[in-house]
Specification:
The protein is of the alpha+beta class. Helix content is 43%, strand content 23%. The chain contains 7 helices and 7 strands. It has a 7-stranded mixed sheet with strand order 1-2-3-4-5-7-6. Helix 1 runs antiparallel to helix 4, helix 2 (34-41) packs antiparallel against helix 4 and helix 3 (46-64) packs antiparallel against helix 4 (71-108). The relative contact order is 0.14.
């Protein structure tokens, strides 16, 4: 569970470097990041199965035709090496795809100016931990805090719905109840927004744990989609949760 030194508050401008770092970690480099999970999932998809078969064929050729100085031997080595080569190439494509996505979001998307993009009635929350106690402050006379998790709520006035975005947790602080606590804070805030009908979100096949969390907090599956990516189609689950808010004027 979250400790007494950990609490949730709305985003402040000086959080930007840590939020960007957490975003990069959660999608690309962190233990259990979306990119790393995607690499593991694609080990069982068609391109990788083909690579395994090629390597098996190469091993069979070398086993039954062990003449390394002839065409059969060369072919066997080529086939055997093709499996790992394809695996490395696919992992590199996935890694670069996530790097490109993160760079685009940081430079041009909602993460460029969080305060402006998530201005009221939207919101952006962070779970932070005090570092060094209440007496330790930075050069701006602010308490030193470590950002452990974050989530955004993007409001669409036309449809009277809100979208959960950028739900990311530091790998070193998972399984401590922060995710559920942060989402409950977001739900409570959403219920205070006048005229909001529902909260929607999308989560991919690479984030099955997140889907279980959302469903446990009242979200229901709305539809399933397949979205193209640079490394194949990705299954996306769209979920929706009704909220009780103040009536519109």
């Amino acid at each position: 569970m979250a400790g007494s030194d950990t609490y949730i508050r709305q985003y402040r401008p000086y959080d930007l470097p840590q939020v960007h770092g957490l975003f990069f970690e959660g999608l690309v480099t962190g233990r259990g990041s979306v990119a790393n999970f995607a690499k593991c999932r694609f080990l069982l998809k068609a391109p990788m199965v083909s690579a395994y078969l090629l390597s098996l064929c190469g091993a069979a050729v070398l086993c039954y035709l062990p003449h390394y100085d002839n065409v059969a031997g060369v072919l066997g080595f080529v086939l055997l090496a093709s499996g790992p080569a394809i695996c490395i190439a696919i992992r590199r494509v996935i890694h670069n795809a996530f790097l490109g996505y993160v760079d685009q979001v940081l430079q041009q998307g909602d993460m460029r100016d969080i305060e402006a993009y998530y201005a009221f009635p939207a919101a952006f929350f962070v779970a932070v931990r005090r570092v060094g106690g209440d007496d330790k402050k930075d050069e701006n006379n602010e308490k030193v805090e470590e950002v452990l998790r974050m989530v955004g709520l993007e409001y669409d006035q036309k449809t009277h719905t809100a979208e959960v975005r950028r739900m990311i947790v530091s790998a070193a602080h998972r399984r401590r109840g922060l995710a559920a606590l942060l989402m409950r804070t977001l739900i409570t805030y959403a219920e205070s927004v006048r005229g909001l009908d529902a909260i929607e979100l999308g989560t991919s096949e690479f984030q099955r744990g997140a889907r279980r969390l959302y469903e446990g907090l009242g979200w229901e599956l709305k539809k399933t989609e397949e979205e193209p990516s640079s490394f194949g189609k990705v299954m996306i689950w769209r979920l929706r949760r009704k909220v009780e808010t103040k009536k519109r004027k």
